[in-house]
Amino acid sequence: MKFLLILTVTLLLAQFTPAMKCWSTLGTCRTKCQDSEVFHILCRDATMCCVDPKYMPSKPEPSNIAGRLGTSVV
Predict the structure, then answer these.
(1) Per-residue pLDDT tens over the stretch 14-30
(2) Which region is the signal sequence (predicted)?
């Protein structure tokens, strides 16, 4: 019976404990990202900032200056 009371109190506290937001409130600080999230940056408390992949910035294309100029790099 005591276990049930402790479990109930713990679950209620977990519902009201605000999660720390990161990266312009698009991410959540966690010790482990969920399967549907990706790690982006570190939070202030050294946990991972987990972000939905659709909010991740796109990676720029690598530039190939030598190829554009028609010269080869040796």
Answers:
(1) 665 567 899 888 999 99
(2) 1-19
Phi then psi for residue 51, to 5 deg, are: -125, 145
Strands 38-42 and 21-22: unpaired
Non-local (6+) Cβ contacts of 45 within 8 A are: 20, 29
Q: Which of 36, 67, 32, 73 is nearest to 54 (CA)?
A: 36
Q: Which position has the token pair 């570190």?
A: 42
How distant, in Å, are the alpha carbons of 31, 60, 74 from that of 66?
43, 17, 10
In degrees and rounded to multiples of 5, residue 6 shows phi and psi of -65, -40
- Parse the chain into domains and list their residue ranges: 18-57
What pLDDT was estimated at residue 62? Answer: 64
For the beta carbon of residue 50, count every other beta carbon within 10 angstroms.
21
